[in-house]
Amino acid sequence: MPHLKNPGLFEKVYKIVRTIPKGKVATYGQIAEILGTRDARKVGFALHANRDPNIPCHRVVSKEGQVAVNYAFGGGWKEQKRRLVKEGIGFKDLPRGKAGEMHVDLEKHLWTPEI
Length: 115
Description:
Structural class: mainly alpha
Mean pLDDT: 86
CATH architecture: Orthogonal Bundle
Largest sheet: 2 strands, parallel
């Protein structure tokens, strides 16, 4: 994993992620924007490095709504999806071969933070 020059960034990411309510998801880019950066990858690095199961990293997806292929808490994308479905998150019904089972319906479930 790349070394980041700002170790406090991870804690800032985790603080934001803790505020995402059940039944909603945020994108890496949304969190980066809240932090005042355009680097969504740093948000991804922070979430992948997290080892605290109390931080709801499963509620963060790509800008297209795709869950993480290498979800950090084991079980890959299927585990992330299982956690989201348990919280009432719906997934897109895309044509076969388009990985719809991996894409959250952002129109219904995208978090709108109060800033």
